[in-house]
Specification:
Two copies of one chain form a homodimer. The first copy, chain A, is α/β, with parallel strands linked by helices. Chain A contains 14 helices and 16 strands. At the A-B interface, α13 and α14 of A face α13 and α14 of B.
Chain lengths: 377, 377
């Protein structure tokens, strides 16, 4: 199901292949976020053109609306949203932590309230497994107990150990319901080495199909991420995919790849697009391959600013910038036009910006894979 | 430039051809509204697929943002918005009436304030002609003095007579600036027969390239429209295109075609789509041609309800309706999915609904042309 195709000699980076029922995914890869069964502003047809290999959706959101019975009757999430490639769903652990108005954790599971309707739900690990099974996803995540930053050591330890106990219940329940998805465990433990090591070791014993590093990007200083990566990856088997959840900026992704991470998801490209922030290759050039070559030739790009920049298209200077938005999927439209669409609140603005940023991120991943292949990363 | 290809024996309906620099338009036709250089929620690529023959944009909006200097530098409105088919622009007369916060009319022109910035503008007929010239549109509208309903007879008469005087200035200025667009006059006169007749007769003397019926859909009872149509069309030359501005519902369009109208524009399909209201052929059938045949076979469809219905996709009953949105351009998506997108405020919702309604309106026009050809309308 998973194989490491090539290991870098320069870093812990690796080329991987992950087989799912809906296709093979070559890593390292990035998963655009389709929280509510749609990548915001993007149609199923546009997704096919963008070729993201795999997308991510959310157990929590789909449970609340439209609800799993509807998606089940539609023939599963793939049929419902008309996406025929692989889908990974987060388990809901992070979303009940970050989104619900009310959250009460017991050993049994999490009670939470839908922030819009106030309706209370109970989500034990088993329910999360069943929902992901009913959605028909390719990769399901174990249900974890997520804690914020900062938090008391004892509280972080307690959440991590509960995550381990819930992981066992997830595995048992997956077997019971005969779910066909790959199931990934989520390493917790905050910014504490001892807790990350314990979490990783316990989960590895359970022989998950892959391992994610969770509880990052919850408010901790960004410089702690490298430590968390180093400690955790060292404990994870080479033979299983590694997924850094919810990150990140392009330079963070490059760094994480160099630390041995294979999988990413992040709302940055889509969310920032909606605010008019575009990711742009440095040394803009008429040939996109050349522009991408900036990353290739230097074989690095680990610091912000070495291979890309961001612009805010709503800045006045773009009102008269008649150069194309990019040289690839939006070469027909000028920056001046996109500026105008944002300034006049035309909904097309967000779509074009999203198409641009997703193409940037997916190209970044293709370049990363190319550079590992060439021995540059 | 314009020819009547076939005249119906059953009504005043006719098949027409209008040649423009950006293509030939077969009438009767409908112009989707791209007020601010974009059909709301629709990309240039989607427009090409929808094949609307021609779209409508607005002098008033484009003057305010991005401003004509920008569009001129972009190479004109076609290049700016990446639409290579014909474009008609309204002159701004209706928009300063309906949208501006402040409007002061003198014989020279209209003073108005941008409702968002408060900036004051002066728009004499000559300026409207120049702006439409700089936009590079195919069909420009004369600048008219629009009055609401109800209004005093004397006020309607005054606005109509000013429209005539401004029409002369528009023609003179078009000549002076050597604009290449076709220029259409706009008949005013409210709901008063005598004023409509006078307006039409005076404008016809000026030998415009086409004639529009303006000042409808400004609050007057809908049943007055047939009278206005009858009085006005009788005065217009058969050899020139006739355009009923700002209308309407499907059955109103059919009626107007039967009264000899060739051209339509309306925000109904796009605006109602954004509120989840979809236009649906009656007797839904897997073969769209058959569904359209409902109109064809009966050879009428002039009353609401005879050939279509509207549904509100946000109604609870569509939550579990897994039938396709339509059998044509959105056959891959279920109504349940579109319902979900609306309920969860996914921006894709408005796009899909807009694509559906525009396809309905354009199919309606194609069916109308087919039925005139067959002698059924």
């Amino acid at each position: 199901m998973f194989s490491v195709v090539k290991k870098s000699k320069k870093s812990a980076a690796r080329l991987t292949e992950l087989k799912t029922r809906h296709g093979i995914i070559r890593g390292p890869f990035f998963m655009p976020v389709a929280t509510k069964a749609a990548v915001k502003n993007i149609s199923a047809e546009e997704l096919v053109v963008l070729e993201p290999q795999i997308i991510l959706s959310n157990t929590y959101h789909l449970m609340l609306a439209p609800g799993t019975p509807i998606i089940k009757r539609a023939g599963g999430l793939h049929a419902f949203m008309q996406w025929s490639g692989p889908i990974l769903t987060d388990s809901g652990g992070f979303q009940v932590f970050s989104l619900s108005k009310f959250r009460k954790i017991t050993e049994h599971g999490v009670q939470f309230a839908d922030p819009s309707s106030g309706t209370r739900y109970l989500l034990p690990p088993e329910k999360s497994m069943t929902v992901q099974h009913e959605l028909g996803v390719d990769i399901a995540m174990a249900f974890d107990d997520v804690i914020g930053y900062p938090a008391e050591y004892a509280a972080v330890e307690q959440a991590m150990q509960r995550t381990t106990r819930w992981a066992k219940r997830c595995i048992a329940h997956k077997k019971k319901i005969k779910a066909k998805y790959a199931l990934f465990g989520i390493v917790q433990g905050g910014t504490h080495k001892q807790l990350r090591l314990e979490s990783a070791r316990e989960l590895v014993k359970l022989n998950f199909d892959g391992y994610a590093i969770g509880g990052v990007a919850v408010g901790e200083p960004r410089n702690k991420m490298k430590n968390i990566l180093n400690w955790t990856v060292a404990e994870l088997p080479e033979t299983k995919p590694r997924y850094l959840m919810g990150l990140g900026r392009p330079e963070e992704i490059v760094t994480a790849v160099q630390h041995g991470i294979d999988m990413f998801d992040c709302v940055i490209p889509t969310r920032e697009a909606r605010h008019g922030r575009l990711y742009i290759w440095k040394n803009p050039s008429p040939a996109p391959r050349q522009a991408r070559g900036t990353l290739s030739r230097k074989g690095r790009g680990t610091r912000e600013g070495t291979f890309y920049k961001t612009i805010n298209i709503t800045n006045a200077k773009f009102a008269k910038d008649f150069s194309p938005i990019n040289q690839t999927n939006l070469k027909q439209y000028s920056k001046a036009y996109l500026h105008h669409l944002f300034k006049t609140q035309e909904p097309l603005a967000m779509r074009l910006a999203t198409l641009h940023n997703l193409e940037f991120y997916l190209t970044l991943m293709a370049d990363i894979r190319k550079n590992i292949q060439k021995g540059l990363l």
